[in-house]
Amino acid sequence: MVKENIKQLLEDIRKNVPLVHNITNYVTVNDCANVVLAVGASPIMADDILEAAEITAISQSLVLNIGTLNQRTVESMIAAGRKANELGIPVVFDPVGAGASGFRNNTVKQILSNVKIAILRGNLSEMSYIAGLQVNTKGVDSAEEDNKIDGVSVAKKVAEIYGCVAAITGAVDVVSDGTRVTKISNGHKMLSKVTGTGCMTTALAGSYAGAANINGSKDYYSAAIGGIMTMGIAGEMAFETAGHMGTGSYHINIIDAVSILSNEIIEERARVNEE
Amino acid sequence: MVKENIKQLLEDIRKNVPLVHNITNYVTVNDCANVVLAVGASPIMADDILEAAEITAISQSLVLNIGTLNQRTVESMIAAGRKANELGIPVVFDPVGAGASGFRNNTVKQILSNVKIAILRGNLSEMSYIAGLQVNTKGVDSAEEDNKIDGVSVAKKVAEIYGCVAAITGAVDVVSDGTRVTKISNGHKMLSKVTGTGCMTTALAGSYAGAANINGSKDYYSAAIGGIMTMGIAGEMAFETAGHMGTGSYHINIIDAVSILSNEIIEERARVNEE
Amino acid sequence: MVKENIKQLLEDIRKNVPLVHNITNYVTVNDCANVVLAVGASPIMADDILEAAEITAISQSLVLNIGTLNQRTVESMIAAGRKANELGIPVVFDPVGAGASGFRNNTVKQILSNVKIAILRGNLSEMSYIAGLQVNTKGVDSAEEDNKIDGVSVAKKVAEIYGCVAAITGAVDVVSDGTRVTKISNGHKMLSKVTGTGCMTTALAGSYAGAANINGSKDYYSAAIGGIMTMGIAGEMAFETAGHMGTGSYHINIIDAVSILSNEIIEERARVNEE
Fold first, then answer.
1. What single-letter DSSP state applies at residue C11?
2. What is the ipTM of this complex?
3. A116, A121, A55, A61: which is closest to A90 by C-alpha?
4. Are A156 and A114 in contact (CB under 8 A)?
5. Is the pLDDT of residue A143 over 50?
6. Least CB-CB distance to B26: which of A29, A251, A254?
7. What is the largest CA-CA distance in chain A?
8. Across residues A5-29, what is the average pLDDT?
9. Which is deepest, A91, A245, B235, C134, by most CB within 10 Å?
10. Which residues pair with A169 in a beta bridge?
C-alpha cells in the first residue's frame, strides 16, 4: 500500500516538478541539487535572511539541513520554516550532528520549537539525541549501532513528541508517524563511504513531500519512506554497476540510478515492510 | 567568422592560461572551477571584501554569479567589479534567479548600476526581467519557454540598455551586442537535468573573455558565443557517451568533453549562425 | 623505512577511523570529505566559532585550509587550532594562495603565530612566501617552477622556522622536518587539471596524522609523506584508467584509486626516497 503511494508520488514528481527549497550545508549541496533533479523535481538554494522566506513561499517543500550550520543561516532557516508553516508547505529537517556540539543542540532545539516539522530524518544517534536519550555521538557520519538503542522505539518517540514523521536511517531504516511503523531494508553499506548520502536522502524526501503537497494527499509518511527507499535502491544499483571501481564512481552511479528510477524498478526492488 | 574567432580564442586560452576570478555560489562552484580548468584557463575563487578587488586586479576576467547570493558577498562583487572596470578587465555577470525575490532583484539593480558588464548571460526569464518585461519566474532553473517572449528582442534590448553583450541560453541560444545577433543551436535537453550547466556556461564565457582581454581583441561577443557553444557541444558529446547511464555520469562527461574540445571538434560540430 | 611507516598508518586509519575536522573552502570541500572517507577516515566539517573548538576536541586531527578564507572562518580556524594545540591534536595547514593577497598573507601570519602546526603543505610559491622569499604568485593553482627556487632548501627553511613538517608539492614533492628530507616522485601532470588535488592531499595528510595521533607514534613526518604519496599514486592509477576520457572522469577516478589503495599497491608503486 505504501509502495503504491510511493509510485504515485514518483509519477507526480515527474509530472508536477515541485520546487524544493533547500537551506543546507556547503559540503553536499551540489549532490543534493543533482539528486533532486535526478528524481524529477527542481531544486532552489537560497539562504540569506533577506530572501529565505520569500523563496519558500514560491516552493512546494522546504528542506533544512544543519550540516555546516552557522549563525547567519540558522536565522534564515527559522524564518523560512515559519513561512512554510504559515502556507502549509511541508518542512523536512535533517539534524546533522545533533548531539555533537552545544551549538548543534541549541540549533536543533530552536528549530524544533519554532517550526512545525513534517519529516525529521537522521541517523540513530541524532534521532536518539532528539528523543532525549543519552548518546555518544562520534562526528556526523554514523549511527552508533552498538549502543543498544532500538530504532523503532526511538522513531515512535520522536514522532509522538514532535507530531511529525520520524525517519531513522542506518543498517535498517525505520519510519514512524507515531502509530504506523515501516521498515525499509534496501541499501548497501558502501553508501556510508560517500559523503552526503544522508543529506541526499533528506532532499529526496523533500522532493516526494513536494509532490504530496501539490497532489493534495499531504502524505508525508509515504514521502519519507519514498526518499529512503529511493536512496536505498540507488545504493544497490550503483554497487552492482560501479562498486568494484571505487567510491568515486559509486558516488556518481548513485545519481545515475536515481535518474533512471522507474515504477518497474520500484516494483522489482523495493523492500518496504509495514509492520 | 565568429567561429574562426572562437577557435582563435580557444587556442589563446590554452596558450595564455587566463586567470579567471569567480565570485559565485557554493552549489556549483566546484564544477565552475573544473570547467575553467578543462577549457584551459585557471580559476581563482575569492569572495571576502578584504581581498576581492585585489584578486581581481591580478586576474584577466571576473565572473559574478548570484546563485546563492548573500549580503556579505554582494558587497565583494561590487568592489571587485569596480576594480575590474578601472583596470579594463571584462566582467561577466550571471543574474541567477533574477525576478525570483526582492533581494535578487535589488542585487541585480545594484550590480548593474555600479559595474559596467561585458557579458550578461541568463535564461529567458532572468533576461526578460532585466529587460524590464513582466515575467513569472519559477525558481532558478528554467527559462519560461511558454510565455511567448522572443529571445532575440530580449537579448537586443538588454544589450542596448546596458551596453554589453547579452546572452540568453535555453532551447535556442541567442547572443546580441545590440546590433549583431548570433544563434547557437548546439546543446541537449539533458543539460537541464544537471545543476550548474548555466553557471558553467558563464564561467566558460569568462575564460574566453580572459583570453580576449589578453590578446587585445577585447572581442567579448565571440567570447560569449564561445562559452555557450562549448557547453552546447559538450552537452551533445556527453549525451552520446553517457546519456544512457544517467544524469550523474552525464554530468562528469560534460567536463570530459570540455577538456578534450579541439578546433577540429568545433569545426565539425559548431552550429553557430550569425543572423 | 618511511614506506613501512606509511603502510602501518594506512592500516591504522582503517582500523581506528580517525575523525578529521576540516575547516576548509567551499570549492573543494566535497572532494576533501570524500577523499578522507576513501582512505578510511571520517571527515567532519564545522566552521562556526560557536562550535569549532568543541568539534576539534572530539577529533583526532584538524585540517585548516584558506582556499576561500573569510573573516568569519579565520577566527574559527584560530580557535580550533588553539584547542588542538591544548589537547595535543595535530594541526595540518594548507596556506592556499599565500602571497596572492594582503588578506591571505595576514591570515597566514595570524595562524602561524597563534597555532603550532604539525604539517604545513603548499606549492612552491606558497611555501617560498612562507619561507620569507620573494615570489610572484599567479593565483592559487601552480607553483612557479621557473623562479629558480630550490624546493629542498625552502622545505628545510619552513620546517626550521615553524618547527613543523614542511611539505611542498609540485613536479617533485619534497617533505622535510628540518633535518630529514624525503622526495616523492609519484604523481601525474594531469592532477593539475582538477581543482582541489592540493586540498585533497592536505586532507589525506590530515587522515594519516589522525592515525599517527591515535597510535601514539605522533609520526607526522610519515603522515605528510603518506598523504602526498597517496595522492600521487592515485593520480597515476586514475590516469591509466581514465586519462584518455578527460578531466571529469579523471577526477572521479582519483577518489576511486584512493578507496582501493592497499599496502600491496604501495609496495608496488611508491617512489619515496629518503635523502
1. H
2. 0.95
3. A61
4. no
5. no
6. A29
7. 48
8. 98
9. A91
10. A123
